[in-house]
Amino acid sequence: MIQLLPQNKKTLDFNSVNPAETVEFINKYIDSHSCKTMSVDISFMNILDASYVSTLCSTRHYIKYPDGKINWKISSKLVKEFTSGLELGNVEYNL
């Protein structure tokens, strides 16, 4: 279950482990809400899916909010290592 925690601390639930559906859901949320700072829990995903989702959605978020921030809750520090070469300046990874 994905949990988005935007600035107003409202929690949105999403029940899919399909990474493409997850990216679509988060990107639609970014496009339609004011979410300069947000948190997303993807700790239930495997390392590759979490890397995929966080990279694509962080890029979309950066396009809308160049000075914004997404806090990703992950299950392994390997996600941070896999994406470190991309230098995504608007992300934080937390275990």
* Largest pleated sheet: 5 strands, mixed
**How far is it from the N-terminal to the C-terminal residue, by CA?**
16 Å
Output the number of helix runs: 3
Helix content: 40-55%
Radius of gyration: 12 Å
Q: Name the helix and strand elements from N-terminus to C-terminus, one letter apiece.
A: EEHEHEHE
| Spans of at least 5 consecutive residues with low confidence | none
Q: What structural category characterises the helix and strand content?
A: alpha/beta
What proportion of the residues form beta strands (DSSP E)?
15-25%
What integer is the average pLDDT? 87
How would you write the strand order of the largest sheet?
A: 2-1-3-4-5
Total strands: the figure is 5
The rough form would be described as: globular
Strand-helix topology:
Elements: E1 2-6, E2 12-14, H1 19-32, E3 37-41, H2 47-64, E4 69-73, H3 78-83, E5 91-94
Parallel strand pairs: 3-4, 4-5
Antiparallel strand pairs: 1-2, 1-3
Helix pairs in contact: 1-2
Quick tags:
40% helix; alpha/beta; 95 residues; 5-stranded mixed beta sheet
Describe the structure.
The chain has helices at residues 19-32, 47-64, 78-83; strands spanning 2-6, 12-14, 37-41, 69-73, 91-94. The chain is an alpha/beta fold and 95 residues long. A 5-stranded mixed β-sheet has the order 2-1-3-4-5, covered by helices on one side. A hairpin with a 5-residue loop joins strand 1 (2-6) and strand 2. Helix 1 runs parallel beside helix 2. The chain is globular, with a radius of gyration of 12 Å. It starts with a strand and ends with a strand. The model has no long low-confidence stretch (mean pLDDT 87).
